[in-house]
Amino acid sequence: MKGFWGGRRRRLAAGADLQDIPLEARPEHVAIIMDGNGRWARKRLMPRSYGHRHGADNLRTITSAAADLGIKYLTVYAFSTENWSRPREEVEALMRLVVEFCRNLDREMEREGVRLRFIGRRDNLPAEVLTTIEETERRSRMRERIQLIVALNYGGRDELVQATRALATAIRAGEIDPDTVDESSLADFTYMPDVPDPDLLIRTGGEQRLSNFLLWQSAYTEFRFTSVLWPDFSAEDLATAVRDFAGRQRRFGGHK
Ligand code: FPP
Q1: Residue 154 phi, psi (nearest 5)
Q2: How many domains does the chain fold into?
């Protein structure tokens, strides 16, 4: 694993770079599709799990860098509802990494003021993963420098199906009048109704698609695609993405 201080030096350099950009111009919420772990490992003639391990280590570096840059929410795609179809060893390695991430980094996350939350289906997670993420959420809930939201067993369409089902149940119970249903009625039943939509979504690894990530929340999100493989994505790369974002004009469907 990369040493803590090595990561910190790079972070401070990245933060210092953005001193001319006011906090209001920076993204409050950044989402990342952390793609490219497998190719990163293959280039080194190593198994895919080796790439995921370095990917998890990089998530730690990037979370700290994001906090230094003033980002308040960082949502990352760790495991999709479709990822169960990967070989059993790879799925097990990913689940193990999530558990290790929660357990081994708690001290560091506490020092950095990181609140951890998980979005996605919980009904078919291995018991150890479920208890670990629930415990981590509980332990970190009062931290407020940055929220790291990990999408685990997550699918954007699945989220919308679950939200629709919950809304329909509330209507059937007479709690909501169907004539009053609007966008916020459905949003209230998504996984994180209290979190603002992502301002910027970054996908590493060279592909240019959303892969069922945050379909509802990304309606007006700015996208940035980079060919850098996730384990190589650095604090400087994040700072560059933030600088680029600050220069974009967002219209949210309105006029210039
Ligand atoms: C995509 O790369 C990446 C994943 C499916 C997993 C991402 C997980 C991590 C970065 C680490 C685990 C997370 C936590 C929270 C500890 P890929 O395997 O599809 O890469 P490829 O496109 O090069 O094959």
Answers
A1: -110, 140
A2: 1
The answer to whether position 221 is within a domain reads yes
User: Which pLDDT score, from 0 to 100, does residue 13 have?
Assistant: 54
pLDDT tens sequence across 9-50: 455 555 557 889 999 999 999 999 999 999 999 999 999 999
Ligand 1 pocket member 105 (CB < 6 A): no
CATH number at residue 140: 3.40.1180.10
Q: How far is the CA of 82 from the centre of ligand 1 (A)?
A: 13
- Residue 173 covered by a domain: yes
Residue 37 Cβ < 6 Å to ligand 1: yes
CA of 115 to the centre of ligand 1 (A): 21
For residue range 172-206, what is the model confidence (pLDDT) as tens digits? Answer: 999 999 999 999 999 999 999 999 999 999 999 99
Query: Burial of 246 by CB count in 10 Å (0-12 exposed, 13-18 middle, 19+ buried)?
Result: middle
**Domain membership of residue 38 as a residue range:** 27-246
Backbone angles phi, psi at 153, to 5 degrees: 55, 45
The answer to whether position 19 is within a domain reads no
Query: What's this model's pTM, rounded to 2 decimal places?
Result: 0.93
Atom of ligand 1 nearest to the CA of 59: 10
Quick check: is 9 in a domain?
no
